[in-house]
Amino acid sequence: MDRHQARRDRLRRAVKKAGADALLVTNFTNVTYLTGFTGEDSYLLLRGNGEVVLSDPRYTTQLGEECPELDLHIRPPGSSMVRAVGRVLRSAKIRRLGVEAESISVALRDRIAAERPKMEIVPTADQVEALRQIKDKGEIARIRRAIWYAEKAFGVLRATLRPEKTERQVAHELEHQMRLFGAKGSSFSSIVGVGSRAALPHANPTQRRVGESDFILVDWGANEGLYNSDLTRVLVTGRISPKLERVYRIVLRAQMRAIAVIRPGATTREVDRAARTVIAKAGYGRQFAHGLGHGLGLAVHEAPRLSAQSQTVLRPGMVVTVEPGVYLPGWGGVRIEDDVLVTPDGHQVLTSVPKRLEEAIVC
Fold first, then answer.
1. Same-domain check for residues 305 and 171
2. For position 169, which CATH number holds?
3. Same structural domain for residues 56 and 146?
4. What's the confidence (pLDDT) of residue 202?
5. Are residues 168 and 285 in the same domain?
6. Of residues 280, 220, 209, the one with CA closest to residue 251
7. The domain boundary residue, chosen from 131, 159, 187
8. Which of 31, 63, 111, 335 sits CB 3.0–4.6 Å from 325 for a disulfide?
9. What is the pLDDT of residue 43?
10. How many domains does the chain fold into?
11. Is residue 93 located within the same domain as residue 164?
């Protein structure tokens, strides 16, 4: 069976369990996951006995190429998407419509309700996102490819890193290299922080130069076309101070402890706690103020979340980031991030950029 059809069938069962006749998928990433269509501005109406993609004439050819088995409703120029939704709902005689509560706006929900006043709208939460947590072999292969692009580009960046380069130049060159190796682009705007600016978990690259400090933090990832990678490394460009050595080794130890906990049946909270305990015992608990990691796939940040508030049970096929950090304003920060696959008997670290402190030194 086609993998997209299998996904829709699994979702159909969840929609029925929620007590709805159909689900209107308005999250474009979820539409891609369920159909293979890579465009935007299109919805999917999933019914108990079929489905239809609602789009506009710009995507007619693309839809025919990417998901030829699906029924289409192409709205004519000048006709709104809401009007198209109303017509399809009327034709399908939908009485109870499920909607993606995390995606649909109140205004859109109200306009759809106005099209079908007697129809009941049923909010649903994370039904497609729950399916997306478990990656199939094809998805894992694409994530591996995204990692390959990112790692090859980082190798070039490391070899060409010079004191006079700015954070902004480092970010631009890294993203350029990922494209040269074949990536569609970067997963997100690269984070580059020299010295004290590494204390900003989401530092926007500036004109600060590499040579102005002894270390630099780089957080980057590649998009291979649909799927993403996400890595972070700290490179030592000068002297290894006792403070840098201490903080770096604490963060690396915390990350390795957390990765060791990853296996089917473990909870995301347990993984987060493993890293957080190491950092807290070292006296830096308050300086690790974000979750340990997140799911990775069609989106850079998706379910499951690795945090103190999350109790998702890990299952084979999940791909998560593990990225503990310690951030000290005025001095800098250290974060180390890898992408990890949950396997039937444990885990596999998919990323391979060296991360021992001795390997982080740039000559």
1. yes
2. 3.90.230.10
3. no
4. 94
5. yes
6. 280
7. 131
8. 335
9. 98
10. 2
11. no
333 shares its domain with 198: yes
CA 16, distance to chain mean position in Å, is 28
- Tell the residue number behind the tokens 């102005």, with chain if given: 212
Query: Does position 1 have pLDDT exceeding 70, yes or no?
Result: no
Give tens-digit pLDDT for 260-305.
999 999 999 999 999 999 999 999 999 999 999 999 999 999 999 9
Q: Is the pLDDT of residue 183 over 80?
A: yes
> Residue 50's domain is classified under what CATH number?
3.40.350.10
The model's confidence at residue 322, banded by pLDDT at 50, 70 and 90, is: very high
Per-residue confidence (pLDDT) for residue 363, from 0 to 100: 75
Q: Which residues contact 25 (CB under 8 A, 6 or more apart)?
A: 31, 34, 43, 44, 45, 46, 100, 128
The residue segments making up the domain with residue 217 are 137-360
Based on the fold, state whether residues 199 and 338 are members of the same structural domain: yes
- 32 — phi, psi (to 5°)? -60, -45
CB proximity list for 178: less than 8 A, separation 6 or greater: 149, 150, 152, 153, 185, 186, 220, 222
- Strand order across the beta sheet in which 231-236 lies: 191-194, 215-220, 231-236
* pTM, entire model: 0.96
Read off the pLDDT of residues 172-182 as tens digits, 9 standing for 90 and up: 999 999 999 99
**What DSSP assignment string belongs to 12-63?**
HHHHHHTT-SEEEE--HHHHHHHH----SS-EEEEETTEEEEEE-GGGHHHH
